Amino acid sequence: MNRKGGILKFVLIGLTIVALVVIGGLSYLFQNERIKSEKLQLQVDELTARERIIEDKLEASKKNVSELMIKLQENKDRIATITEELDKEKSARQEALNELEQIKADIEQQKISRQDLEGKLSQAQDDGRKLKEQLKIMEQQKDELRTKIKNLETSASGVELGKVVVNSEVAEPTKVDSSKKATPALKNVNPPVAEPAKEKGKKDLPQVKPLEGKVTVVNKEYDFVVINLGEKDGVSKGDQFSIYREGKIIGDIKVEKVHESMSAAGFAAELKDVIKENDSVVQKAK
Question: Is the pTM of this model over 0.70?
Answer without folding.
Answer: no
